[in-house]
Amino acid sequence: MSKPRILIARAVFPEVVEHLSLHFQVESNQEDVLRSPAELAARLVDKDGALTTGSERIDRSLLAACPRLRIVANMAVGYNNFDVDAMTAAGVQGTNTPDVLTETTADFGFALLMATARRVTESEHFLRAGRWNKWSYDMFAGAEVHGTRLGIIGMGRIGQGIARRGAHGFGMDVVYHNRTRLDPALEAECKARYVAKEELLRTADHVVLVLPYTADSHHTIGAAELAQMKPTATLVNIARGGIVDDAALAQALRERRIAAAGLDVFEGEPQVHPGLLEVPNVVLTPHIASATVGTRLAMANLAADNLIAFFDGRGPLTPVNTPAVRTITPSI
Ligand code: GLV
Questions:
Q1: Same domain, residue pair 111 and 243
Q2: Which of 26, 50, 266, 300 could form a disulfide with 241 if both were Cys (CB 3.0 to 4.6 A apart)?
Q3: Residue 295 Cα, ligand 1 centroid: separation in angstroms?
Q4: What residues contact 247, with CB distance under 8 A and at least 6 apart?
């Protein structure tokens, strides 16, 4: 029986392409060409499976154009690029890459918090611009981190990792808000206390966002929420663009209604709201929270293993849906 055909939508580690080639007829994109939705659909029309990143949208019209497609393995833990309901109805399996990136992403969340509070990039720009002529006592004085209150919105695995770092490493008083409360044993282990969102925003010195992007979480932080925060507070978003109203945030930063922000994700990325580029009190990184070589390789391997296990008949390893109809085409 011929091997299933898969598309690797974006460039990945060459060894992952080689590994997948042992199991599938592979079309890769090692030139990393960005494709429009129509171009992506044209590539997928004769494919049984795909390995995607968060940049490829899998929606109703693409699914209608690609009737052979049985599985899309996302190389990301977030999968807001999937229309999950449409995939489920079309009988298409979706998978993501949880767990393998948890600690690395929590590390980065903390790095961004530290860089934001302690004005690391702002002071580096000052130095590189040749403006450091003398030391002064208040030069780039930032916000304290240790012993302050850390508020985490979204207390999944990554949120819990950030809580542990804050509580155990920095002696922070950790509060969190989530759709559901953690069980008491996990709360105790993370040394985190559940509070209402309003209390979190009003009392936290540092607010970190780690919740999934859904219709409900759109603009979780907008002008009203920014107005509730302390004027000395910092805000970090390592979750998804769209969770923060970037225009409202740019204005709040410009008017110093909060002290600073650290952003790894943006509404409409890779475009960045021009207002954010103009203010000095924001640390900006290009969606790299899980970007260590080891973690990105683990994510690519998990996405690949999902494809292999699925077509092998073992079922997906880390599914995000349970498709209504599933006809597994050729076995390998
Ligand atoms: C990255 O943003 C991911 O969802 O893995």
A1: yes
A2: 266
A3: 11
A4: 273, 275
